[in-house]
Specification:
Layout lengths: L11 E2 L2 H23 L1 H4 L5 H5 L2 H18 L5 H10 L10 E2 L1 H22 L5 H19 L3 H11 L12
Antiparallel strand pairs: 1-2
Length: 173
C-alpha cells in the first residue's frame, strides 16, 4: 500500500519513512565523521580553503546537508523519501498509526543547521568543527533510526508547548 492510501490523514506521513531515512543518514554521517578525522580538518588547521573544500569528509557531509535542505524544500521528492516510498513501503503492511509531518520536517531543519554550522566552521578553518557537528548529527540520526527517538521532533514539541512555535508551524511573535 502506498503513502497515498485513503485512510491517511492530511499532513501525515508513515512514521517508518523518517526512520528509514535516518538509518541511511546516520550511515552517511558516520562515514563522513570518520573521513573528517583523517582529512585536513583536525590535523591541519592551516590548510587552504581549496584543501578544506575538497576534503572527503566535507564533501560527504555537504551531501548530507543537501539531503536535509531538499527535505525542507520538497519532502516528497527528496531521494531518501522517494526510495522509501518506491522500494520499501510497498513491501510493508500499512502503518498502524500516521505521524504528523511537521515534527520530522522541523528535525530535518535542525539537522541542516547542525551540519551547516560544521561545514561553515570547517571552511573558515576551525579545527574539529566538522567532526563535532557531524558526530552530533550522527547521534541524533542514529537515535531515530535505531530507537525511533527523534531529538528534533522532541525539540519541536517543546517549542510548541512553550508557545514559540504555533501548531501551524510559524514562530509566535
Amino acid at each position: 500500500m502506498t503513502n497515498a492510501s485513503p485512510s491517511r490523514p492530511e499532513g501525515s506521513i508513515d512514521p517508518r519513512g523518517p526512520r528509514f531515512g535516518a538509518g541511511i543518514t546516520s550511515a552517511l554521517l558516520l562515514v563522513g565523521v570518520y573521513l573528517s578525522t583523517i582529512g585536513v580538518s583536525p590535523g591541519l588547521p592551516g590548510a587552504s580553503l581549496a584543501e578544506r573544500a575538497l576534503d572527503p569528509g566535507f564533501l560527504l557531509q555537504a551531501a548530507v546537508a543537501v539531503l536535509f535542505a531538499w527535505s525542507l524544500v520538497s519532502a516528497r521528492t527528496q531521494p531518501l523519501a522517494a526510495l522509501f516510498r518506491s522500494l520499501v513501503q510497498p513491501r510493508l503492511t500499512p502503518p498502524g498509526e500516521w505521524e504528523d509531518a511537521r515534527p520530522p520536517r522541523f528535525a530535518q531543519g535542525v539537522g541542516l543547521a547542525v551540519v551547516g554550522v560544521g561545514l561553515i566552521l570547517h571552511l573558515i578553518g576551525v579545527p574539529w568543527a566538522l567532526v563535532i557537528a557531524g558526530a552530533a548529527a550522527f547521534v541524533a540520526a542514529f537515535l531515530n533510526a535505531a530507537f525511533g527517538f527523534c531529538l528534533g521532533c522532541e525539540l519541536y514539541l517543546l517549542l510548541v508547548r512553550a508557545g514559540l512555535i504555533r501548531r501551524g508551524g510559524r514562530a509566535a511573535v
